[in-house]
Design a protein that fits this description.
59 residues; mainly alpha; two-stranded parallel ribbon; 47% helix; elongated
Length: 59
């Protein structure tokens, strides 16, 4: 898990979200957040509520 934490620390635009980035790296999954700062990186896909609503077919 240390590898993920170290990479997440370098990657996240907001240190408060480092744990979410480390977990997303470990699980190879996206993050759901309305925080626009998190999209400032290109390693982890970040979806906001509006995007997920469109993906799921709900207006």
């Amino acid at each position: 898990m240390v590898l993920y934490v170290e990479e997440a620390e370098k990657l996240t635009p907001d240190p408060d979200d480092m744990a979410y980035f480390a977990l997303a790296l470990k699980l190879n999954c996206a993050i759901w957040s309305n925080d626009k700062k998190l999209k400032e990186q290109d390693k982890i896909e970040v979806y906001n509520t509006h995007e997920l609503s469109k993906i799921s077919g709900h207006p």
